[in-house]
Amino acid sequence: MRVTVIDYKAGNLTSVLKTLAHLGAEAIVTDGDLSLVETAERIVLPGVGNFAATSRLDSTGLTSAIRSAIARGVPFLGICVGMQWLFAGSSEAPEQPGFGCFPEFCTRFPDGKEKVPHVGWNSLEVRKGSRLLAGVEPGEFVYFTHSFRAPVTEVTAAVTEYIEPFAAAVERDNVMGTQFHPEKSGATGLKIFKNFLAWQAKGAVC
What is the pLDDT of residues 37-82, one digit of tens each? Predict the structure, then answer.
């Protein structure tokens, strides 16, 4: 299985590449070679840092290439900021549009008793029917590090509560995302990557 990993110069690729290699996948990294997206079997977009960094996806033509790949039914997984990018945008960088597969916006956690950013292990409430999270039991823990989050909507595949409930994972047809880092989430993260690698497309969106 060949996986095209998108490098927009703000993602933490090392752990993702190690996890894919551990599972026997062939990972190919691109920071602008559109042919590697055009021929992709799977696409992963890791992300950390500021939402503004996703502007590089637009300037290199990767956004358009990813959109075409998704329309062909190629499974796509966005991680952390890579998941937030699937939405219309983020209040972290209001001038930078997101991919727009989902119409809502990501916003910062409100200030309160809990610290922001949210860093550490929290449990998942998995919604029934998620293919990406198949085999993940209620209450399993995964690793988060983020200040901004997506709202809970009909595409939410798992919910976590920190200050208030937010979307820990999203899923619609061949488009998926996790706010947490599956590559840093031990056995639970490995299950999620295995589900992604085994994905058989039933439709395409965006």
Answer: 999 999 999 988 899 999 999 999 999 999 999 999 999 999 999 9
> Which residues are annotated as catalytic?
80, 181, 183
**CATH value of 2-197 in 2.60.40.10, 3.40.50.880, 3.40.50.300, 3.90.1150.10:** 3.40.50.880
pLDDT at 203: 66
Residue 127 CB burial class (10 angstroms; 0-12, 13-18, ≥19): middle
Token pair recorded at residue 196: 């992604």
- State how far the Cα of 185 lies from the Cα of 201, in Å rounded to an integer: 25
Would you state the structure tokens that stand for residue 173, as one six-digit string? Answer: 């047809």
Which residues, 6 or more positions from 36, have their beta carbon under 8 angstroms from its beta carbon?
A: 4, 28, 30
Query: Is the pTM for the entire model greater than 0.90?
Result: yes
